[in-house]
Each structure stands twice: as C-alpha cells, then as structure tokens.
Amino acid sequence: MDLKRAVAKEAAKLIKDGSVVGLGSGSTAALFIEELAKRMENEDIAIFGVPTSYEAKLLASHYGIPIVSIEDYDVDIAVDGADEVRKKDLALIKGGGGCHTWEKIVDYNAKEFVVIVDESKVKDSLSFPVPVEVIPHSYRVVMKRLKELGGESVIRLGERKRGPVITDNGNFILDVNIKVENAEELEEKINNIPGVVENGIFSRVDKVLVGTKKGVKALKK
Ligand SMILES: O=C[C@H](O)[C@H](O)[C@H](O)COP(=O)(O)O
Fold first, then answer.
1. Does residue 221 surpass a pLDDT of 80?
2. Are 219 and 87 in contact (CB under 8 A)?
C-alpha cells in the first residue's frame, strides 16, 4: 500500500466514536479524511470535523462528514500532515499548501495533535522554506525584519492565479529560507514581527506517525 495511505489509515483507527476531530490539510490529510469517512460508514460511528482549511472543509462535505466550528466546539484530536519533521525533537514545518494559520489554530488547541507523514519527510535537520503568512500591506517590512533574523524571503506566487497566492484568510505568504535551530524560539520570534499572522514552524506536536516500507511507526518526543 502507498505509504501515505497506510499512515492515514492507521491514524483513522485512533478516532473514537463521538469525537470532534481536527481535519488537516494537504494530500496526506486528505487520505485521512477519506479513511475516516470509510470508518464512519462501515462502523456506524459519529464524528464531527473541524476543518483546517477550505480544502479540508470541501473534502469533508464531499465525504459526508458533519462539520462543526472551533468557535463552538473543542477539538478532541487533530490529525494533520507536515512538509518536514526533524527527527531529534519532532519540530515541524507546515504550510507548503498555505494552510498553516488555520491549521495551527486547530492543531495547537486540540487535546491531542497527531501528525502523519511518509518516511521521506523525516530529516535530521529542517531545510524546507518556512511559510510565513503576512498582512499584504506589510510584506516589504516583514521581509526586512526576517532578513535581520537571517532569513531570505520570496513572495509565494500563484500557478494559475497571476501574482501573489492569497490564503484562505486573504493574506500573502512569504517563503523564508532560514536556519531553524531552536524551533520554539524562532516560531515565537517570527510571530512577534508586526504584520505576521502566523508562521509554519510547529514546535508542539504530541505524536508523529510515519509510513515506512516496514510499516507505520510512531515517533514521540
Ligand atoms: O499547508 C499545507 C499543510 O501544512 C500540509 O499539511 C503540508 O503542506 C503537507 O502536505 P502534503 O501531505 O500534501 O505533503
């Protein structure tokens, strides 16, 4: 079985009847949403989904998973993908698809936050450019401040949409090449820059499930 599918299926087994589940974004989380929907149908369990993006919301609707809002409900467990995972401390980079702001709101407020990846994403050090969502008007000054922190930024441009990518929240994204050593400290420093909405360093995760050729393995801090 495909490694992403295998890890998504394993994560779907963690979900208990009646839970409020944070539904992650990206291709791996999409498989989790699909596997969860299968369980709901085959085992007749009730699940309420809290999406982390419009992508997740549309998928959940497609599979018939009832959606509730984080404005009204606490999340029992969030399952989400990642672009890179650092082996030694499970620091993550997320936001390759531009969804990290909404993801962090849901994932960090869940009682349990589980990440699902295939083994190609588990690294000794982080090198994926850090996505930083910014208020459009602030991009130039934020880029200057990121440079002071040692980061070189580019504005993320659309593929079919011309000009900057616009997030689900109506903002721009900067992709920042920056050395991540102390993940928690850098996550906080970037978020302290005026104009920054949220960055894609996630220093807090409870468990990472990894799809490997030898089966699904759990990494814990
Ligand atoms: O913004 C996107 C999210 O952070 C995704 O979870 C991340 O990019 C991983 O996506 P994929 O599973 O498609 O590699």
1. no
2. yes
Q: Please name the residues in contact with 88: beta carbons below 8 A apart, sequence gap of 6 or more.
A: 124
Class (C level, CATH) for 130-199: alpha beta
CATH number of the structural domain 3-123+203-219: 3.40.50.1360
pLDDT of residue 220: 81
Q: Is the ipTM, as predicted for this complex, more than 0.85?
A: yes
**Cα–chain-centroid distance for residue 121?**
13
List Cα–Cα distances, 18 to 42, 59, 99, 104, in angstroms: 15, 20, 26, 23
**Average pLDDT of the chain?**
97
What DSSP letter does each residue of 75-131 carry, written as one string? -SEEEE--SEEETTT--EE--TTS-HHHHHHHHHTSSEEEEEEEGGGEESS--SPEE
Domain ranges of the chain: 3-123+203-219, 130-199
pLDDT on residue 110: 98
pTM given for the model: 0.97
- Catalytic residue selected from 103, 133, 187, 198: 103
Closest-CA residue, ligand 1 atom 9, reads 82
Alpha helices in the chain (DSSP H): 3-12, 27-43, 54-63, 100-108, 139-148, 183-191
Q: Which residues line ligand 1 (CB under 6 A)?
A: 24-29, 80-83, 94-100, 103
Instruction: Using alpha carbons only, give the angle 7, 86, 35 rounded to the nearest 5 degrees.
Output: 15
